[in-house]
TrEMBL record:
Keywords: DNA-binding, Transcription, Transcription regulation. Pfam families: HTH_18 (PF12833). InterPro entries: Homeodomain-like_sf (IPR009057), HTH_AraC (IPR018060). It comes from the Bacteria. SUPFAM superfamilies: Homeodomain-like. This is AraC family transcriptional regulator. One of its GO terms (molecular function) is sequence-specific DNA binding. SMART domains: HTH_ARAC. Residues 189-299 form the HTH araC/xylS-type domain.
Length: 300
């Protein structure tokens, strides 16, 4: 364990009304802040669009898809863009530090392997670490260095911040992850929950310009960093239905909603649901419903 360096002046804490937008992350690739957020009525269960390393000092429970992990004391937490999570607070305020970053930021100059392959960010991992007093002091010192550095004009501050993040990552890799789950499920159930969450997060379709990005079992398997056969076996074992059936049912449900509640053309609906040509959509819809999209719209 390295000794803690002299701490720089603390950065301004972020409150609940301040948000880190996707645009900010896209432009800079990185954002760090001190967390001091009052507990609200609920904390949304959603997928974020960035990687995250956080030092959490408040008593709370982190819900990852089908798992719930209690954090009591100081913990180091890692999150990736592919797995949705929510934080349930057990005290008035959420306190700590947080660093958000994109994979492109960490892989600049191709000096870092894919974060999806890291044990700390991989799907199905347990990226929560309880820290000792010594580990807390070290991690807090690193976060404070990051906060101080991001506001400087130093030409190579991006490289320096990446180095600090790597120090946090390597410190965590030396520790064993917490296994204090509130509940356990088998591997197939866990994988199925992750697949279903990714599927559901693509809806509702709110604009003709919006299009589904994950359309096939292969697409979902790639997002979850696993072989498509492994995904298909898990989903079939857990639900009794193949992956393609779940995708088709959800697409048909959204198609019916768009036909009934919007004035979009069938071509626009086809595009938004990931079909290359309207004729493909028409055939798909008729196969699963016994009627055409226009007939369905006319009769509802």
């Amino acid at each position: 364990m390295q000794p803690q360096a002299t701490s720089p002046a603390p950065a301004k804490a972020i409150s609940s009304h301040q948000e880190i937008t996707a645009q900010e992350l896209k432009l800079s690739g990185f954002k760090a802040y001190e967390v001091d957020t009052a507990a609200g009525p609920s904390h949304p269960y959603r997928r974020r669009d960035f990687y995250k390393v956080a030092l959490v000092t408040s008593h709370c429970t982190v819900h990852y898809a089908d798992r719930s992990i209690e954090l009591n004391g100081t913990c180091l937490m890692f999150a990736n863009p592919h797995i949705p999570y929510a934080i349930e607070l057990h005290e008035p305020r959420l306190m700590g530090y947080s660093c958000l970053f994109t994979e492109a930021y960490m892989r600049e100059n191709d000096r870092s392997e894919s974060l999806q392959q890291s044990p700390l960010f991989k799907v199905g991992g347990t990226p929560i670490f309880h820290l000792s007093a010594e580990q807390t002091a070290y991690a807090k010192g690193i976060f404070q260095k990051i906060l101080a550095e991001q506001s400087t004009d130093y030409l190579y501050k991006g490289d320096l911040i990446r180095t600090y993040l790597q120090l946090l990552i390597h410190e965590a890799l030396r520790m064993q992850p917490t296994e204090s789950f509130v509940q356990h499920k088998n591997a197939s159930s866990r994988i199925t929950s992750l697949f279903q969450e990714l599927l559901e997060r693509q809806f509702p379709i709110e604009s003709p310009d919006q299009a589904m990005q994950l359309k096939t079992a292969q697409d979902f398997a790639g997002q979850l960093a696993m072989h498509v056969n492994h995904l298909n076996r898990a989903v079939k074992e857990a639900t009794g239905k193949p992956t393609t059936a779940h995708i088709a049912e959800r697409v048909i449900g959204e198609a019916k909603a768009l036909l009934h509640h919007t004035s979009w053309t069938t071509a626009e609906i086809a595009h938004s649901l990931g079909f290359e040509y309207p004729t493909y959509f028409n055939s798909f819809f008729k196969k699963h419903t016994g009627t055409t999209p226009l007939a369905f719209r006319r009769d509802t």
